[in-house]
Fold:
Amino acid sequence: MWVYEKKLQYPVNIKQTNPKLAKIIITQYGGPDGELGASLRYLSQRYSAPYPEVKAVLTDIGTEELGHLEMVGTIVYQLTKGLTLEEIRAQGFEDYFVDHTTGIYPQAASGVPFSASALQVKGDIITDLHEDLAADEAYKYRQLVFMVYNVSCCQNSTRD
Amino acid sequence: MSERERLLKRLSSYDFAIAEMHIYLDTHPDDRSAAAALRVYEEKSGALRSEFEEKYGPLSPSDENGNRWAWISDPWPWDNQEV
Structure:
């Protein structure tokens, strides 16, 4: 089972809204290499893991990924909180807004809803760990894209 | 940054170290120096947690001490504390 803690793993306090950036970052919430997929990948692969060390590490990492999911959801929430109609139009947020207003929906940047088809659980330790490595590499690449995007168009959106 | 946020950030720093040490120890359960470091972080985190909860309310449902209002009260973790 799990016990909830009423705090983020790391604090998130965003200075100014930015719906354009939110539409990119939401893929880290519910996209193909996002935190929801990461949690489900590790927490589902652990059942068939044959060694105690692997059962433990998949459980603890899968749990930590849920904490990451909460931080990403918070980022998207704060980036889109209290938008005016003008801001929604000017920053191209209409397509997300018409479906979800400013609710936090698990989807990719392209708008495709979260799907378990972007992860795999094979019940074979070598296959599953290789899948984890591939997913982690995709995640690192995604972080690089976020950094470039954040520096070039969205300075001052975040602090701390 | 408010006093509450400063305290929460310090607590989060120790809790992050604890989480990472736990993951390391999952695959290196016989590493005594790592286990000793974990205990140090747990002591520091425990003291900060007590201080935070005394001042600002419970961090987990089991710490609510019968005060349902304190548990449900804002701010929740996704609420922005700097605007």
Chain A is about 60% helix and 0% strand.
